[in-house]
Amino acid sequence: MAEVEKKEEREVPYYETVLGASPEKLATVDYKPPAKPWMDVPPKFKKLDYLNPAKVKWMKVIDLPFPREWSPPDEDWKLPENWKEIFLNGMEDRLKRFRSFQLFMDICVRCGACADKCQFFIGGGDPKNMPVLRAELLRSIYRRYFTTSGKILGKIAGARELTVDVIKELFKYSFQCTECRRCSVFCPYGIDMAEITMIARELLLLLGMHVNWAIEPVGKSFLTGNHMGLLPHTIKDFMDEYRDELEKITGFKVDVPMNRKGAEILYIVPSGDFFDERGVILTIATLLYFYHIGLDYTWSTYTSEGGNFGLFTSHEMIKRLNAKMYAEAKRLKVKWILGGECGHMWRVINQYMGTVNGPADFLEEPVSPITGTKFENAKDTKMVHIAEFTADLIRHGKLKLDPSRNDHVIATYHDSCNPSRAMGLFEEPRYIIKNVCNNFYEMPESCIREKTFCCGGGAGLGTDEQLETLLRGNFPRSNATKHVHEKFGVNRLLCMCAIDRAVLSMGLSYWCPQVTVGGVHELLANALVIPGESPRTVDLRRQPLKRPITPGKIAGKEA
Amino acid sequence: MNVKLENLLTQKRSTILKKWFDVVIETYPPETALFLRRQKDSIANPVGSTIFQGIEDLFGELLKGINYERVSTYLDNIIRVRAIQDFSPSQAISFLFLLKKVIREELKKEIRENDLSRELSELDSRIDNLALLSFDIYMKCREQIYELKGYEIRSMFKACQKAGLICDIQEGEFDLKEGQNIDKL
Ligand code: SF4
Ligand code: SF4
Question: Which ranges of A107-206 would DSSP assign to H, the alpha helix?
Fold first, then answer.
């Protein structure tokens, strides 16, 4: 009997059903996958479809528990002996500490409004990536161990036992969620899936399980101030190189203020802007821009990272990494902080900074030194987004701009998840783009602003390790980009996040290679009309311009 | 192709397409199939709409004669998606064979009554040709994925090299002279 059952369970490979089959036979083959309740589908780990676990050395650097060698496809994940107890105690503790978590576990009515809003479900088709089901993975445990109905009724009440397979499943799907919060925009109760994923990851971390793509950057940030582990002299070398490149292109020799005490403003960017070819161009652009407006500012080699991968790890880690930015601002005695085109940095600043480290009383309320505008929205955090700062300059007519210098660019704009959904930064970037570029086309309304699709690589997922998952999650955004490429000839996807710049580039190279990716301020710097400029035939990324730049002329006419 | 079969296929075009779409969609888990079938907006449902558009275009080609350049694009659109989803290679391109199944089911009576088996086998071999082409396209997509992976690794390596984390020498950095360097050591 047991034998027979085993036979039935064997999955028949598709080719066995087809090999040697006549067309008539083919016509009878059933291609439907078996319909099983989701609780009965065990997690599988395929190559290019999972992230590598955190390395022992990086776990140790930041004092994380149970560091060990293991791999998701392994049968044995070497869980600590009392793993169940640790997990459930951790859950109980968090249910008490976070009112939101308790609420999110209780109030979902399974209306399904969020079900088809996650890019991983839309692009990949795995039902467990429907936000409602992703939450259910943890909620079923909550019901079983923390509600009376679940304890008594079990499966009927949507409850299930906590088993090793459940832990594996949680690991898999917690790292197929970018904590982008798109789904929560559609939830009538405002259930924030990102917070559920964050708690799930914290619980896994209690068992010593996380991914290296998040933990190594956290460890390196902790040790050196940035994800790459770039040391101060290295950053200085890079910046000198970019200064020289800027001079070669534009003829302007600019200052690169580094770690300068007493500067008015500390400027913080994601570390990708220092080393990643897709971010460096933005640094070159910023050097030119700040030189032009004569900003009294400094870069820092110690707070050389805006990104806060603590957000993908634990609330404690958010606090640790966020604190260093303010410590550096204090050390350098600046008045306030200006932040670059970064993603998660802004979520932390707007939603966590006030609680974990704020208010930053030792800094001054930010005031634009050029227009005198008070940034009252930054009263608490003392940190202004560069798009707010620039939009204010343009609004006050402080920048002379020639949008025709970007005529080789046909742009669309991807609202990066965090600046858009975590701080509502919708208009400023668009205002800048429309002032610096003559060709700007929006993607359809259903996938921009607060409804923007995620790039597919946030929250520690932006690596080629699980490239297939990434390409699935990226498909909706790339598909919408392809749509405007085909309709309007769009050739540049603008965004405001370092992870976006890397992940959208990866995604588009597969889905729509005709479109390149870039930052908003790159186009701004291209369009600046600067006194004393030299003639030039290329833009800041050395792409040929439509019309060569003649000093003092705007759109070919006398300025 | 014999006019008769072509006529039948043209007449029943929308029914066949709908059924073909349905069976392709059924290769996904049931909850997913529901979504892929129901949501018509191409931005909200890029997978469903890519598949529908793709099979519609392919069906047109099968009827009017295959232009390989065009057909490659149509196949690419669908296969590119299925090549990164949770399918084996054979499952990824199975959607073509499903057309055979649909046509046989849909035109069962007519095929028997009009003895269209020769025309049908002609159509089958056209579909088989598309299937052969699909292997190439599937492989191209997979190669691209690995190229992309290679590219990412290379750029990380370059970044490390640039940051001085990996030793490399630049031309002129050391006093190196061709043919004399080992001696010097
Ligand atoms: S990835 Fe975004 S849309 Fe998907 S479940 Fe997570 S937070 Fe929701
Ligand atoms: S939209 Fe909100 S209430 Fe409805 S299923 Fe999703 S999480 Fe639950």
Answer: 119-124, 131-146, 148-153, 164-174, 182-186, 193-206
Q: Could you tell me if A515 and A491 are in contact, meaning their C-beta atoms sit under 8 angstroms apart?
A: yes
How many structural domains does chain B have? 1
The beta-carbon neighbor of A476 closest among B36, B46, B121 is B46
**Given an 8 Å threshold on Cβ–Cβ distance, is B84 in contact with A471?**
yes
Inter-residue contact A368 to A392 (CB < 8 Å): yes
User: Would you call A475 an interface residue with chain B, using a CB distance cutoff of 8 Å?
Assistant: yes
A232 touches chain B (CB under 8 A): no
- For ligand 2, is residue A110 a contact (CB within 6 Å)? yes
Q: Give the integer Cα–Cα distance in Å for A95 and A202.
A: 13
Strands A553-554 and A557-558, by their bridges, are: antiparallel
Residue A211's SS3 state is: strand
Assess if residue B84 is contained within a domain.
Answer: yes
Going A319 to A322 to A326 to A328, the CA torsion angle's sign is positive
The C-alpha atoms of residue B56 and residue A271 are separated, in whole angstroms, by 47
Query: CB of A203 within 8 A of CB of A91?
Result: yes
Closest partner residue to A33 (CB to CB) among B29, B80, B90 is: B29
Over pLDDT 90: what percentage of chain A?
A: 87
In this structure, are residues B36 and B1 in contact, taking their beta carbons and an 8 Å threshold? no
Question: What's the pLDDT tens digit per position in A369-402?
Answer: 999 999 999 999 999 999 999 999 999 999 999 9
Nearest one of A441, A447, A436 to A394, comparing CA atoms: A436
Q: What is the mean pLDDT of residues B96-102?
A: 94
- The encoded tokens of residue A286 equal 């910023």
The SS3 of residue A382 is coil
| DSSP structure class, residue A299 | B
The predicted complex's ipTM stands at 0.91
Contact B180, A534 (CB under 8 A): no
Q: Measured at the alpha carbon of residue A481, what is the angle toward residues A477 and A484, in degrees to the nearest 5?
A: 145
Would B177 be classed as within a structural domain? no
Domain containing B63 equals 3-162
Tell whether A76 lies on the interface with B, counting CB pairs under 8 A. Answer: no
DSSP letter for each residue of B4-17: HHHHHHHHTHHHHH
Is the per-residue pLDDT at A23 higher than 70?
A: no
Residue B72 covered by a domain: yes
Terminal C-alpha separation, chain B: 78
Question: Quick one: pLDDT at residue A1?
Answer: 40
Residue B180 in domain: no
Average pLDDT over residues A114-123: 97
Cα A190 to the center of its chain, rounded Å: 21
To the nearest whole number, what is the mean pLDDT of chain A?
93
What whole-number distance in Å separates Cα of residue B154 and Cα of residue B10?
51
H or E segment and range at residue A471: helix A467-488
Q: B55 to chain A nearest CA, in Å? A: 17
Residue A280 to residues A238, A241, A277, A402, Cα–Cα distance (Å): 9, 10, 5, 23
* A62-93: b (≥16 Cβ within 10 Å) or e: bebebbeebebeeeebebeeebbebbbebbee
- Give the helix ranges, DSSP H, for B41-175: 46-64, 68-82, 89-92, 94-106, 108-114, 117-162
Burial of A545 (0-12, 13-18, 19+ CB in 10 A): middle
Distance CA A40, CA A183 (A): 25
